[in-house]
Amino acid sequence: MTDAALRRRQIIAAGLLTLVLLALPLVATDFHLSVLGLIFLHAIVGIAWNLMMGFAGQLSLGHALYFGIGAYIVAFLSERFGISPWLGMLPAFIVPGLIGVAIGALGFRFSVRGVYFALLTIAFAEFARILFEHWDYVGKTAGYFFAALTPANRPLVSLRGGARFFYYALLVTMIAAWLLSMLLVNSRVGYFWRAIREDEDAARALGVQALRMKLLVVAVSAGITGVAGGWFALVNGSLFPDSVLGMRVSIDFIVAPIVGGLGTLFGPILGAFIIVPLNELSRDISQASGINGLNLLIYGVLLLVIVVFAPQGCWPGIAKRLGLAKSGEADRDQS
Amino acid sequence: MISLEVKGLTKRFAGLVAVDEVSFDVAQGSITALIGPNGAGKTTCFNMVAGAMAPSAGHVLFEGRDITGQQPEDLCRLGIARTFQIVRPLTGMSVLDNVVVGALMRTASVAAARQVAHALLARVGLDAKADQMASSLTLPDRKMLELAKALSTRPRLLMLDEVMAGLRPTEGDRIADVLRSLNRDGMTILLIEHVMRIVMSLAQRVVVLHHGAKIADGTPAHVVTDPRVLESYLGRKARPA
User: Fold this and answer.
1) Interface contact flag, A208 B73, Cβ < 8 Å
2) How far apart are alpha carbons A230 and A243 in whole angstroms?
3) What is the DSSP letter of A84?
4) How far apart are CA A198 and CA A203, in angstroms?
5) DSSP 3-state helix, strand, coil percentages of chain A (rounded to 5)?
């Protein structure tokens, strides 16, 4: 198969998937739509995290920081200051992006690499969580609540609505994040990121401005994650430091891109489609059986099975079988 | 004209002087070899010139400009490219993409960079393997890829750290042929090399290091007859009892 034919197949597949997702609300129940919305939310953060880890090789275990900051920004601007969430999304992108750059600059400037950089990201996220838990203005651990929706609410103005509204809103955001990541990965910047991922010193010897490129990827990744956080605030209507800034949030969000396939464009989306339903299913089983915590056990075992059978993630193998990737090894980044 | 000027370059590690006030010039358009027994300080010297290591003292000038202590990526931009003694292919990327990365430093267009990369792979004889993963290459091919990567940044000075080490003679000759043809096109080359046969046939100028200090500097024919060079390589004659 030639490159052009492959590209055509990929575009057709992506178009078909988009059409199906657009039409799904015609048949799905509100419950299904809200689960799908949750899938899209995980996919958005997964895409963002994967840009950093999968393409530029920078491990972050503190993405909850960007998610939480984005969530609180949108919530506060709209509830306290009456600023439309449409506008609130902008600082929800920019502020986490800047925080990411600051953390990155601090770490990368002093050559903090690999797991030590990951520790730094955890430290900042935990710092923010503890700060928010003791900060009166944001409601401490008691959380922060949106006012209840009135019948006069117009979703396109308040960006709050029912399951169907959020379904479409998150779908559009996910597609935008996907397109943005595709654009970046296939551009000059994407080549530099991958070179840094493979061998930073060798990349620098090829003229790659590693520091600048790493700050860029953190900024984009943190920004997208902040927007996802903003949507989470609007969907949920309530925010608690532990539920948006906690360590568990950071860990939850990285499972989907790993299961889907690190360093692939579609992997985070596929991963979210696998992980979120698994999570819901195991919770149902746990509740039906009356055994507390059984869900985590089931979830863990299922994850283990996936990791054992598809150590590269699920997407590379599936993409090959569907004829959406070259049969060689060299397809890892293109699909 | 002088391409590279090294003046009093010194590197001290705790209690050890690895490179001791080494000075030499690389003439533009020349092939200059840096040789010496193991541990002579060649790679340390090389790394300081290439910006991978900051010198303790001394200066490096490239085309008259002081570049001492500059970062590798900035030197690359100025026109100095290097290869690593232990080859460092970007293993998770295709052979072509390895070369595209360097070409993208000079152009923002991925399509243009791919064209440059294809041409360079053809020049080093790797074009048929362009779509393979770099991790699948054999050592001789990896050395060639290392060379193509360095060339992709369009350098005026090419620094090669033992590109022929670990190769069979015929494979070494293949690289030597490529280097000769590059040099004919005007490329200045500074190489560290152990394979004396190739140094003698390739280099116009040889700088010899021993225990971190320069002990000889001249044409290959001149250097091999220098008693200090012979001594450093072959050892001192035993004194009569």
Assistant:
1) yes
2) 13
3) -
4) 8
5) 75, 0, 25
- A192 vs B contacts (CB less than 8 Å): 101, 104
- CA B115, CA B104: separation in Å to the nearest integer? 11
Q: How many other β-carbons are positioned within 10 Å of the β-carbon of residue A158?
A: 18
Each residue's pLDDT, cut to its tens digit, for chain A (335 residues) gives 577 888 888 888 888 998 988 888 888 888 889 999 999 999 999 999 999 999 999 999 999 999 999 999 999 998 888 888 888 899 999 999 999 999 999 998 887 888 899 999 999 999 999 998 888 887 787 778 777 777 777 777 777 778 888 999 999 999 999 999 999 999 999 999 999 999 999 999 999 999 999 999 999 999 999 999 999 999 988 899 988 998 888 988 999 999 999 999 999 999 999 989 988 888 888 888 888 778 788 878 888 888 888 888 888 888 888 878 765 443 444 44
Asked whether A8 and A184 are in contact (CB, 8 A), the reply is no
Strand-strand pairing, B188-192 and B31-35: parallel
Closest C-alpha to B114, from B96, B132, B95: B96
Is B145 an 8 Å CB contact of chain A?
A: no
Q: How far is B146 from chain A (nearest CA, A)?
A: 10
How far apart, in whole angstroms, are the C-alpha atoms of residue B9 and residue B49? 9
pTM score above 0.90: no
How far apart CA A326 and CA B73 sit, in angstroms, is: 33
Contact B71 A208 (CB under 8 A): no
| CB-CB neighbors (< 8 A) of B84 in chain A | 202, 205
Shortest CB distance from A188 goes to which of B84, B94, B104? Answer: B104
